[in-house]
Amino acid sequence: MIDAQIVKWSRLEVIFWSLMIGLGEAYIGAYALACGFSERYAGLIATIPLGAASLAQLFAPKLLRLLKGRRQFVVGCAIAQAMTLFLITGHAIFDRSSPTLLITVLTLYWLFGLSAGPIWNAWIVSIIPKEQRAHFFSKRGPYHEISVLIGLVICGFALDRTPDVLLAFSVTFVLAGITRLVSAYSMSRLPDESSAGAIRLEASSDWGAFIKWLAQKKVMWMILLIGFLNLGVSVGSPFFTPFMLKRMKLDYDTYMMLIAIPFISRAIAYQYFEQVIRRVGVKSALIPSMVIIALTPFLWSQFPYVGTIVVFQIIAGIAWTGFEYSILIKQISDFGQAERSRVLTWTNFVVGACNICGVTIGSQLLGRSPTSADYARVFEISTMMRLLPILVVFVIDWQVSSQYIKRFYIRFVGIRANRGAVSKPILYVDEGGEK
Question: Distance from the CA of 96 to the CA of which of 126, 222, 270, 378 falls in 20 to 30 A?
C-alpha cells in the first residue's frame, strides 16, 4: 500500500502545479499581443524559450550531483520557476515594451521546468512501491487534467471580463506563481528517494555519445521523422494564436475554448490509444495521425470560422496523441531501461532545435504587417513541410513486441493552441516488463 501522506501531498502537488500551467504560460502568446508586440513576435515569444530551454535537460543529471538529493533539486527548480512567473508580472507592470526581457524570463521558466522533469520522474517512481505505480499514476491523471482545465477557464474568464487586460494578466501570473510555490511546498513534504526501484539517470551531455547515437540507422531515420515534422509544425503553429486574436478577432472566452478543446481531446484519447494500436498496429495508427497533423494548418486558412476550427481542434488533439503514442512505443521498444531517459532527452533537444529553426522561418514568411493572405501562405507552406516526413515512415520497421504496447501516463507541461499540450511521458518499471 502507498503511504497515505504520500498520496495526500502528491495530489496537492499535482493540483497546484497543474493550476499554474493553466493560469500562466498557456496564455503567453495572447499576453505578447496584449503588450503590443507584433504578430510574428508573439509567435517567436511563445516558441523560442521552450526550444532554447530544451538544451538544459542535457545537463540536469550533472547539476543533480551538486545537491543532496532529487527532492532538493526538484523543489529548488519549482521555486525558481515560480519566481520567473513573478518576473513576468513585473514585465507586465514595468517594462512591457521589451520582448528580449520576456523571452529571457520565459527561457528560464522552461529551463527550470524541463530540468526538473526527468529528475522528478525518477524521484517519484522511487518512492512508490513497484506494484502500486500503475494505480498511482492512473489516479493522479484526472487531478492533473481537470486542474489544468480549471486554470485555463479561470484565466480566460478573467481576461474577457476585465477592462484592463494587462492587469488581468498580472493577477493571473501572480496566482500562477503562488500555485507553483504551493506545489513546491507539497513536494517538500514527500520523502526523499528510495534506493529500491529508482530509475538511474544517464548523463545526457556527452556529445560523443550523442553523435554516436545519431549515427545509428534506426535513430537517424526516427530523428529525421520527428525533427522534420516539428520543423514544419513550427513554421505555422506558433502563429495560430495571433491568427485567432488578430485576424479572426476572437474574444478571450472563445480563444480559451479553442485552446482547451485539443487539450481535452488529447487527455481522452490517451485513455484509448493502447487499444487502438493493439488492434491496427503502430504504423497504421501513425500514418493517419501524421496526415491530419499536416493538413490542420491548411484547413485553418481555408475555413477560418469558429465552428469549423472547433472540429479541427478536436481531431488535431487526437492526431497528436496518435503520433506521440506511436513514437513513444517505438522508442521504448528500441532502447533498454538504462538508455530511455537519455534517448528521450536527446530527442527533445533535437525537437527544440527544429522548433527554433521552424518559427524563425515562419516569422520571416509572415512579415511585419501580415495580411490574411500572408497567414494563408505560411499555413500552406507549413502543411507541405509536414507532409514530407510521412515518406520516412515507410523506411522504418514498425514491428513492435506486444509487451511494449501498454498504457502510458503523461505529464502535460504546457498548453499549445495548435496541438493541445506539450507532454512528457512518465517512465517506470512495472510488473508486466520494462517500461
Answer: 378
Q: Domains plus CATH for the chain?
A: 1-189 (1.20.1250.20), 207-425 (1.20.1250.20)
Quick check: helix, strand or coil at residue 410?
A: strand
**Residue 140 CA: distances (Å) to CA of 143, 264, 359:** 6, 16, 34
pTM above 0.85, yes or no: yes
The set of residues, in sequence order, having a beta carbon less than 8 Å from that of 383 and lying 6+ positions away, is 232, 236, 294, 295, 296, 297, 298
For residue 410, what are the β-bridge partners? 425
DSSP 246-315: IIS---HHHHHHHHHHHHHHHHHHTTTHHHHHHHH-HHHHHHHHHHHHHHHHHHHHH---HHHHHHHHHH
pLDDT of residue 391: 96
* Helix ranges restricted to H, 54-98: 60-64, 70-94
Answer with the residue of higher pLDDT: 133 or 251: 251
Burial of 368 (0-12, 13-18, 19+ CB in 10 A): exposed
Please tell me the predicted confidence (pLDDT) of residue 176.
Answer: 97
Q: How many Cα atoms within 13 Å fall on the side-chain side of residue 10?
A: 23
Contact, 271 vs 346, CB < 8 A? no
Residues 379 and 399: their CA atoms lie apart, in Å, by 34
* Residue 422 per-residue DSSP state: E
Sign of torsion over alpha carbons 426, 11, 13, 190: negative
Query: Residue 431: what pLDDT?
Result: 40
Q: How crowded is the C-beta side of 391, counted as CA atoms within 13 Å?
A: 6
DSSP letter for 206, please.
-
